[in-house]
Amino acid sequence: MTFGHEGLVAIGGFFGACARYGIGLWGKKKFQARLPVSTMLINLTGSFLLGIVAAAGGSGISLLVGTGFMGAYTTFSTFNAENIQLWRSRAWRTLAIYVAGSYILGVVLAWAGYALGGRL
């Protein structure tokens, strides 16, 4: 690894974190629901886009967009914290929809992105 590689990851991470923050704010204003729509939207779009990058990207693109941007954009830790909040508030139906929807749709979208990326 060279400083150039680390720089690509850092630049991608900066923009990924900014995108996640902006979409999170927008989603909280737009969707007044018990389901954490913002995090789900972020993680699902991230799964799709990472699938594309994994299939189509070269090493520089993979570092910038895959590791950097997507690493900062998607959020497994927030997803899990929200699951705990739903569990503690006994929102069982919402929790089941959130977990199942996030995992199932995430895998489907990553696969679709990978299929699309392989054609680029």
Structure description:
There is one protein chain. The protein is mainly α. The chain has one domain. The protein has five helices and no strands. It has helices spanning 3-30, 37-56, 59-73, 76-88, 92-117. It is a multi-pass membrane protein. It is found in: Cell membrane. It catalyses: fluoride(in) = fluoride(out).
Task: Give me the secondary-structure topology.
Layout: H1 3-30, H2 37-56, H3 59-73, H4 76-88, H5 92-117
Helix pairs in contact: 1-2, 1-3, 2-3, 2-5
What is the compact description of this entry?
By secondary structure, the protein is mainly α. Helix content is 85%, strand content 0%. The protein has one domain.
Q: Keywords for this structure?
A:
single chain, 120 residues, mainly alpha
SSE series: HHHHH
Total helices: the number is 5
Strand content: under 5%
Tell me the number of structural domains.
Answer: 1
Structural class: mainly alpha
Please bin the fraction of helical residues.
over 70%
Give me the Rg, rounded: 15 Å
Q: Give the low-pLDDT segments.
A: none
Number of strands: 0
* Assembly classification: single chain
Mean pLDDT: 93
Query: Cα distance, first to last residue?
Result: 27 Å
The largest sheet is: none
Coarse morphology: globular
